[in-house]
Specification:
The chain is α/β, with parallel strands linked by helices. The protein has six helices and 14 strands. Keywords: Cell cycle, Cell division, Cell membrane, Membrane, Transmembrane, Transmembrane helix.
Length: about 280
């Protein structure tokens, strides 16, 4: 049998090329066409679509909890109703911006923000501006908001029994401005709202800036000046909590001494060294 080396070669474009080389090259060209760029992109798109569809159907990504903070005059129910009660909706497709605008339509809401906390939580924070104080001046009641802005004489439908009385402040006349020019008084009003005993406040006397007065139910509190506001409010909180735990009835508290407050208790109450 004649073995010819010429069988292993062929002519291609005027050149002598090994047949095995050509076969391998053709095989590679076929593979490249099979996994082309367009086909690869299609496969990636198909995979992502499958993942997103699975997430959409999965209960793990559906809203099941809503936390609301910052609201006092507006109930949780009112806020949830305004955003269409999104429980059960897919959190990925939920649009906070649209619903933030809806919350702001409520009477006392100044600002609202909604944050999605994956996989299933909505965190809603609101800022309110609602009537909280009043002061009688020239025989008329003027209303002041929780932020310290003057609301004027008309506040519409509101439970006025919930309002705290302010005495002695020099009221500004411009509606929407801070009710007083004293920044320290504004800070005091905002700070005291952060303590649980604020619910028991009947009256705040701001007439004498060197001796602010607080009426807490039947307890007369001499707050002193408006220096170290946060410190003295915390001291007052400690005194009231301690007295409550020991069933001691307090009649007066003098915080004007700073670190050495004076506490007067009822003669009918248990009396002991309170060590304040």
């Amino acid at each position: 049998m004649q073995n010819s080396n010429e069988d292993r070669y062929l002519k291609k474009d005027g050149k002598t090329v090994n047949k095995k080389y050509v076969a391998k090259k053709h095989s590679k060209e076929k593979n490249v066409k099979l996994f082309s760029k367009g086909f690869t992109i299609f496969l990636i798109f198909l995979a992502l679509a499958s993942i997103l569809y699975s997430i959409y159907l999965n209960n793990y990504m559906k809203i099941s909890n809503i936390y609301i903070t910052g609201n006092k005059a507006t109930s949780d129910g009112e806020i949830i109703a305004e955003i269409g009660n999104p429980i059960g909706e897919n959190i990925i497709l939920y649009k906070p911006e649209k619903n933030e605008a809806n919350i702001k339509k409520l009477p006392y809401i100044e600002n609202a923000s909604i944050k999605k906390v994956f996989p299933n939580l909505l965190n809603i924070n609101v800022e309110e501006n609602y009537p909280l104080f009043f002061q009688n001046s020239d025989g008329k009641d003027y209303y002041i908001s929780n932020t310290g802005s003057l609301l004027g004489e008309d506040i519409g439908e509101f439970d006025k029994s919930l309002l705290k009385e302010i005495k002695g402040a020099k009221l500004r006349s411009e509606i929407g401005e801070n009710f007083t020019g004293s920044e320290a008084s504004i800070n005091f009003l905002k700070a005291i709202q952060g303590f649980s005993y604020f619910n028991e406040v009947n009256q705040l006397n701001l007439e004498n800036k060197a001796q602010i007065g607080i009426m807490l139910n039947d307890i007369d509190v001499k707050f002193g000046d408006l220096n170290d506001i946060d410190y003295k409010l915390k001291i007052l909180d400690n005194i009231l909590n301690d007295a409550r735990e020991k069933s001691i009835e307090i009649t007066a508290i003098d915080l004007d001494n700073g670190k050495n407050p004076i506490v007067k208790v009822s003669p009918d109450s248990y009396s002991d060294n309170l060590n304040y």
